[in-house]
Amino acid sequence: MRSFFRIIRFALQSMMRNFWLSFVTVSVFVLTLVTVNAVIVLNVLANASVKSVEGRVQVTVYFTSDASESTVKNVQSYLLGLSQVKDVSYVTADEALAQFKENHQNDPVILASLDEVDGNPLGQALKIRAYNAGDFPFVLQALETPEYKPFIKDKNYNNYESALRVLSDFSEKVRLGFLILALFFGFIATLIVFNTIRVAIYVHRDEIGIMKLVGANDWFVRGPFLFESICYAFIATVVMGVLLSAFLTFANPAIVAFFQGVDVDLVSYYLTNALPMFGAQFGILALLGLGTTTFAMRRYLRV
Fold it and tell me: What was the pLDDT predicted at 209?
């Protein structure tokens, strides 16, 4: 135990003697963790965005003008009987026309063409909401029955499908960009740790020589450098936790308000997963530091 505490003391002394190198090392470690946690936060927000869009997806099925109200009501009952369907609302022809005019109020050409048509060219419609956006292809395929297909004029699902695909692709590209940035900072951190240990070995060369003369074993000499690299990882993880707590304290209310109706409480998410996430981050940084330190000692430490 006495030797263990001496190793800790020597490691802390080395960190203080090379304060600025230690500061730079911890800073790069923190930047690495910032990018990693940015990927985690982005992943949560991307999933929340997809759920938010999915919650707003409302496919409208338009019927021909000769479709009777009883036919449309039968289709509504048929759809409500599907386990994938959350809700189906009925829209009269007049309501469909009013909604169409509202959607195209800034398009005078379309509005003028409506005036040229005698009567209401639009038929009745059904607005369908599913539990998951991925269920819509099945729901729409269910309408391709010979009984109902002749009365269906149009469906407008493709726009929503495209929006979900674009959102998913964008989120994936941003996540990839942050991962590349994290790898870059990790590489820089490796170089800085290597240089820090090399400088520490040079500064302590006389002390190391004296230790060997009085009978210190190799592990006692190497121990402070290894413990020093673990300290860098621990300090960086603690600093990241403090920064993340400050960020979530200010940003989480706005995020929750933005994603109304979607469970996207980042504070609860991190509190629930804090131990495995920060434990993994500390472990990866510690292994990175230990590996780099071991390589530097083999290269420059002569014991």
Answer: 65
Q: How many residues does the chain have?
A: 303
Instruction: Provide CATH 3.30.70.3040 ranges for the chain.
Output: 57-157
pLDDT at site 242: 92
Closest CA to 196 of 22, 9, 17: 22
In eight-state DSSP terms, residue 257 is H
pLDDT at 239: 94
Residue 78 makes CB contacts below 8 A (sequence gap 6+) with 142, 148
- pLDDT band of residue 129 (cuts 50, 70, 90) is confident
**H helices of 143-157, where?**
none
Sign of the Cα pseudo-torsion (287, 291, 296, 297, in order): positive
Pair 28, 188: CB distance under 8 Å: yes
Token pair recorded at residue 216: 């210190």
Q: What is the pLDDT of residues 34-59, one digit of tens each?
A: 888 888 888 788 777 777 766 667 78
Q: Tell me how far apart the alpha carbons of residues 141 and 149 are, in angstroms, rounded to a whole number.
A: 10
CA angle 113, 119, 124 (to 5 degrees): 100
The C-alpha angle with vertex 297 and arms to 291 and 298, in degrees rounded to 5, equals 90
Class of domain 57-157 as given by CATH? alpha beta
What are the Cα distances from residue 244, in Å, to 82, 238, 270?
44, 10, 9
Summarised one tens digit per residue, pLDDT across range 214-247 is 666 667 677 788 888 899 889 999 999 999 888 8
